[in-house]
Amino acid sequence: MTAAPRTLVLWDIDRTLLYVGDIDRQVYRETFTEIVGRPAERLPARGTGVTMPLAIRSLLTDNGVPEAEIPHLLPRMVELLPRRLASHTEDLRQQGVLLPGAVSALKNVQAQPGYVPTVVTGNLKPNALLKLQAFDLTGFLDTEIGGYSSDNDHRPSLVAVAQTRAHAKYGTRFSRSNTVIIGDSLEDVRTGLEGEAPVIAVASGKTSAVDLAAAGADVVLDSLEDVPRLLEAITTVTHSGL
C-alpha cells in the first residue's frame, strides 16, 4: 500500500489557536525592568505577529535605550523572557483562552493521512512550548520540527527552517507544493509570501478578513470552527499547482 503524500502544516499560535491576553505584555514589562533597571513606558504593539527578538529590540529603542547598548541588552532579555513567562504558567491556564474550533481543527489536521502538523511562530521556542502545554496542545503538533524566533528573528526564514527539519525527520522534501501556513496576522501572510508557502488566514486576531485577503492570503476563513472547510482549503492550496 502506497503511503499518503506528506503535507507540512505550519500553525501560528497566538490569536490563531489561543489568546493569552496581557500576559506577554506583562512579561515584557518585567523583563525590561529587570534588565534595564527602570519601568518601560511603551510596550510592543498587540497582535502584530512580529518575532520576539524584533519586539524586544523595538521595546528597547522605543523606551530610550541607546543603540550602542542594544547588542548587550537584547540577548540578555531574550534569555530571561522564557523564565519570566514560566513564572506565569498558572496565569496562562487561568487567563488564557482557546480560540473557537482550535482543538477540533488540530485534531482533524493531525488525523489526516500524511499531514505533518507543527508550528511556525514569532515566539521563542520555550515560550511557544509553555503556551501550548498550558492548553494541552502539544500532542497535536510535532514541535521538534517547528520554526521559532529562537532560530531566526526574520519570520519568513522560519518556513525553510521547519521544512529542513521536517525533511530530516520524515524523509520528504517540502516546498510550496506541500507546505501551508495557518495564521491570523499580516505577518503570517508575509511569512508565506516571502517564505514561499501558501497561507490560510483566519480572521481570529486583530486583522480583518478583508485586509488578510488584500495582503495576499490564498484562503481566508472567519474562524477554525468549519473544519471541513479548513481541510478543503489545505488540499486546495497545496495541490492546486500540481
Automatic annotation (TrEMBL):
Q: Give the enzyme's EC designation.
A: 3.-.-.-
Kindly list the biological process annotations in GO that this record carries.
DNA repair
This protein's record includes keyword Cell membrane: no
A GO cellular component annotated for this chain's UniProt record is: cytosol
User: In its keyword annotation, does this UniProt entry include Hydrolase?
Assistant: yes
Which of UniProt's keywords are assigned here? Hydrolase
State one molecular function term (GO). phosphoglycolate phosphatase activity
**Designated name of the protein:** HAD family hydrolase
Q: Which organism is it from?
A: Streptomyces sp. R39
